[in-house]
Design a protein that fits this description.
Order of helices and strands: HHHHH
Shape: elongated
Number of strands: 0
Number of domains: 1
Structural class: mainly alpha
Helix content: over 70%
Radius of gyration: 22 Å
Distance between the termini: 22 Å
Length: 183
């Protein structure tokens, strides 16, 4: 039978694997972004040719990098944290702060973003919003959808971080109980 701690680890590991793949995809999009910018520069200054669609595509690629990279950054602990206190506390304190941060800050913020932007995104889909530029990209509704995607991906990774924190706290509590009973 799988213990609760092992189940939490499996769920968290599954989410982390998904986020890891998104981070890999984001890293490939960085190469695409560099190639696009290079192409635009060569076309503009080498051939006096400009393309609004190509320029707008940079916004889309940059958005994908940011959206996929945000949850990956959360997974790898790269988000801003006040290390003055955090670096001085033990594993139990760090896990407690991480769990509290996920529950009190990350999850409510992501829920707020989802609820407040849902109508905005749906309206964009309803009219299949296009670029205001005549030769721009006709996919503004897809770009706006990424607002919901980032909130969902960060919330999902937040669940993983919360589960990891709970797992550490449960393991420490179990170890403490075993030490107290002399096992």
């Amino acid at each position: 039978m799988i213990s609760k701690i092992d189940y939490l680890a499996r769920v968290s590991s599954t989410i982390d694997s998904f986020t890891q793949r998104l981070g890999k995809i984001a890293s490939w999009f960085v190469s695409v972004l560099v190639l696009l910018v290079g192409l635009i520069v060569v076309l503009r200054y080498g051939f006096s040719f400009g393309s609004i669609a190509l320029q707008e595509s940079i916004i889309y690629v940059n958005a994908v990098i940011f959206i996929f990279g945000a949850s990956y950054t959360l997974k790898t602990g790269g988000h801003v944290r006040v290390d003055v206190f955090y670096s001085r506390i033990g594993e139990k304190g760090k896990s407690f702060i991480n769990a509290l941060g996920a529950l009190l800050f990350l999850m409510p913020a992501m829920i707020l973003i989802i609820f407040t932007s849902e109508d905005y995104v749906m309206m964009s889909w309803k009219i299949l919003e296009r670029s205001p530029e005549s030769s721009g990209l006709p996919f503004v509704y897809l770009l706006k959808t990424l607002i919901l995607v980032i909130a969902m991906l960060l919330a999902l990774q937040g669940v993983s971080e919360l589960l990891k924190s709970w797992r550490v706290l449960a393991m420490l509590r179990s170890a403490q109980q075993n030490a107290n009973t002399g096992e």
